[in-house]
Design a protein that fits this description.
mainly alpha; 161 residues; Slx9-like
Length: 161
């Protein structure tokens, strides 16, 4: 029985191409076979693509100067109606105003943004009332009453509008 080193096996594989497969391991043989199979498939696919491309080129008529065709077609700006500022203003005037839903007065039905707005406005009003109380230390109840009257008058003016 002969024992060959790897250098000897490679040398023998180069010399004996027909018998080289018997000196490879099973994994190497399978890998080589798979590579050949993939190469065959890719070459067939490439040949088909080239054939299809050739058929497309053969079927396509040769077109000469396309300038007359381009001149005959209308410009894009002619197809799309121009919108000017006057037409926009006119269309705005013709629109029917969208009715907004009245804001809920119940705090639990309000959306978070509405709640935040209400709290901010009430906080500012309260701070105004406190400032007014600081200026009128003689009669704080009269100052609160005056502030409430102003507030009610302001809400009545905003309500009918």
């Amino acid at each position: 029985m002969y024992v060959f080193s790897t250098e000897c096996v490679k040398y023998q594989c180069n010399i004996l191409d027909a018998h080289s497969l018997c000196l490879f391991t099973k994994k190497e043989k399978m890998k080589e076979r798979r590579d050949r199979w993939l190469n065959k498939i890719s070459s067939i696919k490439l040949a088909k693509e080239q054939q299809v491309a050739q058929a497309k080129r053969a079927a396509m008529p040769v077109v000469g100067d396309m300038r007359p065709l381009a001149d005959a077609l209308p410009e894009l700006c002619q197809l799309i109606p121009s919108t000017t500022k006057t037409s926009r203003k006119a269309s705005r005037k013709n629109r029917v105003p969208v009715k907004k839903k009245p804001e809920p007065t119940d705090f639990s039905l309000m959306k978070p943004a509405q709640k935040r707005k209400l709290l901010e406005s009430e906080t500012s009003r309260f701070s105004e009332a406190v400032k007014n109380l600081a200026h009128t230390k003689t009669n704080p109840l009269a100052a609160i009453g005056e502030h409430l009257r102003k507030r009610l008058k302001q809400e009545e003016e905003q309500g009918p509008s």
